[in-house]
Write a structure and sequence with these properties.
With 138 residues, this protein is mostly helical. 82% of the residues lie in helices and 0% in strands. The chain folds into 2 domains: 1-70; 74-138, no CATH class. It is built from 4 helices and no strands. The protein starts with a helix and ends in an 8-residue tail after the last helix.
Length: 138
């Protein structure tokens, strides 16, 4: 029989995973809506994408810091670390695209690999590093 502590730990992970997914959806919608509105207003698509990504980062950072991981780490430290996690995710997805292109594979392979690799890696890095609890300084 599993202990209550283990069940509570499993439930905490499940809550964090569900929250991480919801925050990710909100961040994605933010990115798309900002970029779409900016493009419709005549903004260069690359600038619109950058502005959308910036808005999405804000939603993702705040949502994950406050809701998903409920960090006690300082805002500056968390933002710096989460920024590095986001850059890592961009590099990984770009490397996957490069490999898929070099191998002459279909673009759906790239999308599938990114979905299978990037969110789980981002979740683990965010949980275990970017938003990891700071031990009490007693």
């Amino acid at each position: 029989m599993r202990s209550r502590a283990l069940r509570d730990s499993d439930m905490a992970w499940l809550r964090e995973l569900l929250s991480f997914g919801a925050v990710g959806i909100a961040a994605t919608l933010t990115h798309v809506l900002i970029a779409w509105a900016m493009i419709r207003a005549g903004t260069d698509p690359y600038l619109a994408n950058l502005l959308g990504a910036t808005g999405a980062f804000g939603v993702s950072f705040l949502g994950n810091a406050r809701l998903t991981f409920r960090t006690n780490r300082g805002w500056a430290s968390s933002a710096r670390r989460y920024g590095l996690v986001s850059l890592f995710s961009l590099v990984v997805s770009s490397l996957i695209l490069l490999c898929v292109e070099r191998l002459g594979l279909a673009l759906w392979v790239y999308l599938l690999l990114v979905v299978l690799v990037v969110p789980p890696a981002t979740f683990l890095l965010a949980k275990l590093w970017a938003f990891a609890a700071v031990p009490d300084a007693h």
